[in-house]
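Homework help board

Subject: predicted structure for assignment chain

Our instructor gave us this sequence and asked us to write out the predicted structure in token form, then describe one feature. I got the tokens but I'm not sure how to describe them. Can anyone check?
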Amino acid sequence: MHEFSTVQLHISADQVASVWLNRPDKNNAFNALMLEELHEAFERVSQQPALRFMFLRGHGRHFSAGADLAWMQASARLSYAENLAEAARLGQLMEQLQRLPLPTIAVVQGAAFAGAMGLVSCCDMAIAADDALFSLSEVRLGLAPAVISPYVVQAMGPRAARRYALTAERFDALRARELGLLDEVYPPAELEQAVQDWTCRLLGNGPEAMRACKALLLEIGDGQATAPRQACAQALIARLRTSAEGQEGMQAFFEKRAPAWAEVLP
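My token output:
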């Protein structure tokens, strides 16, 4: 376990990283220190090529209630330039999370409000307890979900993002799944088992292939088949087919056995 004050970074024996928001007494609300420690935790994860994938989670009743009230009060007293620098730092964190080289999965329980919806949106996948609640609540404070807006729009679509950003309505996990913000929803008592099921599913995939697939999809973006994107995709499949992992995966398939990276699975 890597030591931080407001987050925890745990790496399991099978090379699965879990980054935990760890201010449960404050409902895992962000403050400047948490943002800095999240940046450091993500940096450590990105620098370990042996890691398979990463869960982003929150200790306690809630994933995160958004920005810490004391931090917001302090921000209100800052100058425009200081607020601009603070917003840039949050934007860098969101982009860092979205572009981590390994797959990422958000696991949500309780509230995921305001900036926390940005974290969920930046992950490649997201699952939640069916009693989780979501809200883009910024307009109630005279603010806007500005920095997180590109990622929220990508995750749930422009029409839904307009509605929930402008109304600040709360919506539940089932609605979040309908919108595409979540991939799957589970009863609260089954969420931990779901995490284990997702772990087993992803451990069965080629580690290098998953990283390469994520990088390709980030490059492709909106999916338009431009010549440079097609060339990138063609070069990728050629490289993977001739790689040691690709050769092992195809050989294992033909021999009807588990590939080397999945031999530890039950």
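Reply (TA_rk): Your tokens look well-formed. For the description, you could write something like this. The radius of gyration is 19 Å. That's the kind of observation they're looking for.
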